Amino acid sequence: MSIRDFMLKFLNLQGYKVGGLEYRGKEVLIRVELRRMTGSCPHCGKRCGYLHQYQKERKVWHKVIGEHRIYLVGRKRRWRGKRCGKVFTEEWP
Questions:
Q1: What is the SS3 assignment for 1-18?
Q2: Cβ neighbours, 10 Å, residue 68
Q3: What contacts 24+ positions apart, CB below 8 Å, involve 39-42?
Q4: Where are the alpha helices (DSSP H) in the chain?
Q5: pLDDT tens per residue across span 14-69
Q6: How far is residue 93's CA from residue 86's CA, in Å, rounded to a whole number?
Q7: Would the pTM of this model clear 0.90, i.e. be above it?
Q8: Structural element, H or E, at residue 43
């Protein structure tokens, strides 16, 4: 197991693409995007690949390791349902 794979498993980020790390004092910012390239519509239940838009970048608290606060930084994607045409936002685990 590589160090990268170990860290993804340790931080419970297996479903994410990690774009980089940034250290700001006692904060660690991890730039992420979900790996999957489709969304599952909560309205009609179909998988869809039509990306409607990205939301603004957000910083979300993930966990604390020692004295460091770990944050996920990224933009959630908004999808349009294939069958129903309704727009929904993906959930980050």
A1: CCHHHHHHHHCCCCCEEE
A2: 13
A3: 39/77, 39/79, 39/88, 39/90, 41/79, 41/81, 41/82, 41/83, 41/84, 41/86, 41/88, 42/88
A4: 3-10
A5: 788 888 888 899 998 988 888 777 888 888 888 888 788 888 888 988 888 889 99
A6: 22
A7: no
A8: none
Distance in angstroms between the alpha carbons of the first and the last residue of the chain: 23
Counting every residue, how long is the chain? 93
In 3D space, the residue among 31, 16, 33 whose CA is nearest the CA of residue 70 turns out to be 31
Closest CA to 72 of 23, 39, 28, 36: 28
Both tokens of 46, joined, read 């179909």
> What residue has token string 């995007």?
33
